[in-house]
């Protein structure tokens, strides 16, 4: 018999994204699953199947909502999904088959840009899925190669219920970043591995460029900078420091010209290499989208993403006391961290 899966979706209230996701959740090619939608207040969503449940949690953050899986979920496997994402029909089939490997405590898969996304959202998706902009995490947004990972976002993350219970669930004092801490706890306390499976696909709506996208990037940068300080095992990696090193060199590098002509040539060599790499990525985007305006937005977006992430990584690295990153959209009343 197939193992039962409990899909956990934390929301403040019913959103249009969630309404769009429900039909996809109903069409999953899997016979043994339930969907737990955790809202602030008790709400009625008509037309839901019996295996869909609305659970009020009070006004708590996403981590606390997800931790209610320990009380209400009846599945052997927990599948964490954001309300602004929806799964491919074979999502559960692919993920559950991976757990035949008893050395796994978790499975994650790509959250790719929906095919019908708007122009500004599509630009954000191209930025996130670019190897130049995303660095060592761009595989989270494209169908990459199968591999083990030590950190994975909760927009598309499967965890064995028993292991989730063993580590005590998410640590609610971190947001964003609660998924980074969960993965660290899972790896350290279970001795197992987390697999990235490119076939475990969800479609994840993007922020629009430039301001909403860059606000999201700033929060990611702050959380990673903080985590590089307090959780070095899966956050103190060169790839996370590179944008900060780049902007420091970009703005302060000219000061070294006074000391040696070597620094002059080195500075413009690095800048030139960056421009070449950026144009190379832009050519890929244009070849795919055949849209010159989208390509121009992409170029600007990648550069601004590096600047914003690099600055806020340093801010998170040196900020005292500990950051409070929690945020909710006042206009839409929904979480804006994911």
Automatic annotation (TrEMBL):
Q: Name one Pfam family in it.
A: Glycos_transf_2
* Transmembrane residue ranges: 238-256, 262-280, 292-315
Question: What are the Glycosyltransferase 2-like domain coordinates in residue numbering?
Answer: 6-104
Alphabetically sorted, this entry's keywords are: Membrane, Transmembrane, Transmembrane helix
Name of the protein this chain belongs to: Glycosyltransferase 2-like domain-containing protein
Which species is the source of this protein? candidate division WWE3 bacterium RIFCSPLOWO2_01_FULL_41_18
């Amino acid at each position: 018999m197939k193992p039962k899966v409990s899909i956990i979706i934390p929301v403040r209230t019913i959103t249009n994204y969630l309404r769009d996701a429900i039909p996809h959740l109903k069409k999953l090619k899997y016979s043994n699953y339930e969907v737990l939608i955790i809202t602030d207040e008790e709400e009625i969503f008509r037309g839901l199947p019996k295996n869909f449940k609305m659970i009020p949690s009070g006004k708590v953050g996403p981590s606390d909502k997800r931790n209610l899986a320990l009380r209400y979920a009846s599945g052997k496997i927990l599948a964490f999904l954001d309300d602004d994402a929806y799964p491919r029909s074979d999502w559960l089939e692919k993920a559950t088959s991976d757990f035949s490997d008893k050395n796994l405590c978790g499975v994650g898969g790509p959250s790719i840009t929906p095919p019908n996304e708007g122009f500004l959202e599509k630009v954000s998706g191209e930025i996130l899925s670019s190897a130049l902009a995303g660095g060592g995490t761009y595989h989270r947004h494209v169908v990459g190669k199968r591999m083990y990972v030590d950190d994975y976002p909760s927009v598309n993350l499967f965890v064995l219920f028993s292991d989730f219970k063993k580590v005590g669930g998410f640590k609610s004092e971190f947001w964003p970043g609660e998924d980074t801490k969960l993965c660290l706890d899972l790896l350290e306390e279970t001795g197992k591995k987390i697999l990235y499976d490119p076939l475990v696909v969800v479609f994840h709506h993007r922020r629009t460029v430039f301001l909403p996208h860059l606000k999201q990037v700033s929060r990611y940068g702050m959380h990673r900078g903080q985590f590089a300080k307090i959780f070095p095992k899966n956050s103190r990696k060169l790839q996370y420091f590179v944008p900060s090193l780049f902007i420091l060199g970009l703005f302060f590098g000219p000061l070294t010209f006074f000391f040696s002509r070597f620094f002059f040539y080195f500075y413009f060599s690095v800048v030139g290499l960056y421009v070449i790499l950026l144009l190379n990525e832009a050519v890929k985007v244009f070849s795919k989208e055949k849209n010159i305006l989208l390509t121009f937005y992409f170029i600007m977006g990648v550069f601004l993403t590096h600047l914003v992430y690099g600055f806020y990584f340093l801010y998170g690295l040196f900020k005292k006391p500990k950051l409070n990153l929690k945020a909710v959209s006042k206009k839409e009343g929904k979480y804006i961290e994911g």
